[in-house]
Amino acid sequence: MRDVEQKPGGKRRGPADFAGARGARFAIFPGSVLARKPPQWVVAAELVETSRLWAGVAARIEPEWAEPLAEHLVKRTYSEPHWDARRGAAMALEKVTLYGLPIVTTRPINYARVDPAAARDLFISGALVEGDWQTNHKFFRRNQELLEEAKELEDKARRRGIVADDAALFDFYDQRIPKDVTSVRHFDTWWKKARAESPDLLTFTSADLVGPAADWVEPADYPSSWGELPLSYEFAPGEPDDGVTVDIPLAALGQVSDDELGWQVPGRREELVTELIRSLPKDLRRAFVPAPDTARAVVARLGEPHGNLLDALGAELGRLGGMQIPRDAWDLSQLPAHLRITFRVMDSGRELASGKDLGELRQRLRPRLQAILNEAAGDITRTGLRDWSIGTLPRVVTRDRVTAYPALVDAGNAVDVRLFETEAEASAAMLRGTRRLLLLQVPSGVRSIADRLSNGRKLAMSRGPFPGIGALLDDCAACAADQVIADAGGPAWDADGFARLATEARDALPLATARVVDVVAQVLEAAHEAEIRMQRVASPPLAAALADARGQFAALISPLRQRDGPAAAARPGPLPAGDQPQAGHRCGGSGPRRQSDGGRTRGNGGLPAGYRGSSGRPALRPRRPGGPLDDRGTAGQPLRSAAGHVRSGVGEEDPCRA
According to the model, what pLDDT value does residue 247 have? Predict the structure, then answer.
């Protein structure tokens, strides 16, 4: 065999070298006709050694000629046995040598001719266990489906070992397939007869696929959908889609509750609660160690998803540990990425955006959502309305794939009809829009009421959190209108309902406005005196207590419009003007003191929960229908918190306050 060492394109120096049998190296004698243009393979009749080893009487040959002629002299070796799905058999690479010279290097052959047992193992492993086989056998298709489902459960549970490993699957087939089946052709011949007698012989059962970790996982804890929204699972640490992903149609983006989805799927809820407990500050966290045990007990008591998980978890831990868990104590940045659901917004099968923050996605896609709502609006939207001329306003509009919620919108000197993405947004806007339309139709009498106020009260009202007394009076009229609307059963949705509301308001609105103005005047008078008292306290040890008192005081004295619920559910009562300023005396040391630690006020950190409405703000005590203005109490019966601070106009329902 010719041994060419020079590089391609280079010039050969001297005669060409050949590698001969048993390691010999020689060249063709210069007098031979083959010396000038030596072939790749030659056979020589003699070898003569002078200055070097020369081959004489040489002839050109092809290496393929040697194998059949020297069958008794060649040596065969096999390497790289593997499963070949295209050929449907186990294959290997054959190498044939003659006296050490390779006459065949990498020839693929059927490995069953060399090692039938090993070829059968490769068939079972490659074709049946790994699934590298194109076939129409029903058992094979069914087995692959079961394996995919089981592997998906491993991804959902983020746990390996749920599915039986390859060795167990190999044993399953090995025990059922005859020893002489080494390829697809052999298998098809055997299975054609075997399936007639036992069609389920090679079909997996649940017991065949069970791994050692299967007892720890319940498939129902990892649903494939959340309501109508499909869920998908990825076990890819470090990747953006690691964890649970929910696909949300663009048209339904406004109706999806991130509070409900924040509870995670049942199979990961305990892990989520564990990590949330670990995210608490140390002074709170140490009451709930070990965190996994606490999480297991708390999850069992939380029940089905309801409201916001952090609120429910904080309340449950508070009952368990006898302490209050502030909402801002949770550090969500410490949560592993796979415990935060990924929201993927889809439109016509195409992904528009994805992320962990549903609110941010809504904001990013708001132009698209608004375009969809405008398309669905049709002739429902209106602008510049000053009376009810729209017939019946539907509470919900559904067109094609879009669901929207119409409502009146306060536009200042008029009202508009717009569509909202969520029912909650529409309800809030409808209250404000109905209030504006009612004030446009029914006089509140606030100006005549203001004219009858004493100069002292006018001066006190000018010190409120408003640019002028006119804005304060408008706010009082708006609060009174809310009360009238709520007393009438809520906003109207048709012309007849608004007409009845306007009729009732003509008598009720001026009276309600007068009551509100009267109470606001009392509150602001007492507030001014309380401010003066607190300014007189200059004791450094009481600085923290004063800061806390001023913070609560500022929360109580705010515009009536800054509220989340209707004002009509709550009627403001009179403030004990002679008792409120006592808070300044108590801070000065003449009254009972709050518990403190190192000069820091400890405890409520704001308003007590009992004095807060559903929005978390101080709420007025609800009015009994037809009850007198001062049915809460008298000036000698002020409302106080457990800390000794006097509260005014606080109750259980509405955050409307002066």
Answer: 94
